[in-house]
Design goal:
Layout: E1 2-6, E2 11-15, E3 24-31, H1 40-49, E4 62-66, H2 75-85, E5 93-94, E6 106-107, H3 112-115, E7 149-150, E8 171-172, E9 174-178, H4 187-191, E10 197-199, E11 206-208, H5 218-222, E12 228-231, E13 236-239, H6 244-247, H7 262-265, E14 272-278, H8 292-299, E15 304-305, E16 316-319, H9 326-333, H10 337-345, H11 349-354, E17 367-371, E18 375-381, E19 384-389, E20 392-396, E21 402-407
Parallel strand pairs: 3-16
Antiparallel strand pairs: 1-2, 3-14, 4-9, 5-6, 7-8, 10-11, 12-13, 15-16, 17-20, 18-19, 20-21
């Protein structure tokens, strides 16, 4: 085992390989507050990549309903229980001496790599704490969809009594959209005995070399997010490839410029933002103040990693849902949840403008700027002053070409009564 620095945990941790980082890392932010669970992203991915024989159960992109849903079933709950049994789990988050290197504090619990020696596999070869889901657990990707939890969750006809009260509902659920996180320290890569899994040096996308893979399924066992899949017809594993031909600009409509993934392009709720972040030699992020991903993660601190305590340093980030009990969210997204939810409920001027960049264009936004507009709203909400300015946010691609221009207040179009049913 080597020691690598995991900035999401605020400390060094054990990992089977020496640290190695791409020049720029593919990353994304999902705004859970906007997801309506329509599964447009899921079907876009399925119809593009996993429509063939042997791929029937593969959902590289899926949207599951929390707290009951999951694909495979209860993937996170089972691993959290295993981590707890080895002395890991949420642990204690202490305040660090250098907040720039540990923005969420220092994690004192064990990661899946550090807990593995205390819970070895039957053959003694487990590199990362994990499990192989059963066939039954892969059967139902939409099980428990739209199921709520809360005080009235089991009373017929009373699911949403008091549900209009924010910041937390008595009865609640939310949709969690998931793809491969293309982690900085992938558990699938660490566990592969064939060394068939690798991170692309140009963008950190995690791929499986199909010629080297022998279908041992160690990657499936180790991945805490269960985003690698075994294909019985070819006897090799497959996974989300971040639509890398589109990322490279090779899509016929991309014009040679980086294009977003299929799941993002199909998202009607505009919950997704994708981009690239620069990495320092120690794996921390290069400061890029006008990079929207950098801004949301490190400046506004709205977007948080999914289960950072697993230790893989995922490059997928989530803006947590504001109506869900904070205790549940802290377990899922770490100790930054409370501040993130408060900021989202009363966003500052710049944050409100950056949030308009989500889903506005298929080209990847590398940089933004804001042109100030007039004040259009000023009111006290839940004891906090909320001011909204109709600013214009402009997004630019890799080459500095403008790809997005929109205002905070979206224009309202009233359809003529003459053709009320037309589109």
């Amino acid at each position: 085992m080597s020691n690598v620095y995991n900035w999401q945990l605020g400390r060094e941790m054990a990992y089977p390989y020496e640290a190695a980082y791409p020049g720029r890392q593919f990353a994304f932010v999902f705004n859970i507050n906007r997801c309506i669970g329509c599964q447009s992203c899921t079907m876009a991915c399925k119809s593009t990549w996993t429509f063939s024989a042997g791929q029937e159960y593969m959902w590289w992109n899926n949207v599951e309903t929390k707290p009951y849903g999951g694909y495979p079933r209860h993937w996170d709950v089972k691993l959290l229980d295993m981590l707890h049994a080895t002395g890991g789990g949420p642990g204690a988050w202490a305040r660090p001496s250098d907040a720039s290197r540990a923005p969420y504090g220092e994690y004192k619990g064990k990661t899946i790599f550090e807990a593995a020696p205390e819970a070895p596999a039957e053959d003694g070869s487990q590199t990362a704490l994990g499990f192989l889901p059963t066939d039954e657990e892969w059967n139902t990707p939409n099980l428990f969809e739209d199921n709520p939890a809360g005080a009235q969750a089991t009373v017929r006809g009373q699911y949403f009594r008091g549900g209009g009260e924010l910041p937390a509902h008595d009865a609640w659920f939310f949709y969690l959209a998931r793809i491969c996180n293309h982690c900085s320290y992938p558990a699938c890569l660490a566990a592969c005995p064939r060394k068939a899994i690798y991170k692309r040096p140009e963008d950190g996308i995690v791929l499986i070399d199909q010629k080297e893979c022998r279908g041992y399924r160690k990657c499936m066992e180790a991945c805490p997010y269960k985003k690698t899949h075994y294909r019985p017809t070819t006897r090799v594993s497959e996974k989300c490839i971040a639509c890398y031909p589109r990322i490279e600009g090779k899509d016929t409509d991309a014009g040679g410029r980086p294009y977003t993934t299929r799941c993002m392009a199909a998202c009607i709720g505009q919950i997704r933002l994708q981009g690239f972040v620069g990495l320092n030699p120690d794996g921390t992020w290069v400061e890029e103040r006008n990079n929207p991903i950098y801004y949301l993660v490190h400046v506004a601190k709205l977007a948080l990693p999914l289960y950072p305590q697993f230790g893989t340093e995922p490059n997928g980030y989530y803006i947590p849902p504001r109506w869900v009990p904070r205790r549940y969210l802290r377990q899922m997204f770490g100790p930054g949840v409370d501040a993130a939810v408060e900021r989202y409920m009363a966003p500052d001027r710049e944050t409100l403008a950056v949030l308009q960049l989500f889903g506005k264009d298929n080209h990847i936004c590398h940089r933004y700027e804001i042109k100030e507009g007039p004040k259009v709203f000023d009111k006290e909400i839940r004891g906090r002053r909320v001011e909204i300015y109709n600013d214009t946010v402009i997004g630019y691609d890799r080459d500095g070409r403008e790809i997005i221009r929109c205002t905070v207040e979206e224009p309202l179009h009233v359809r003529s009564g003459k053709h009320a049913n037309s589109i």
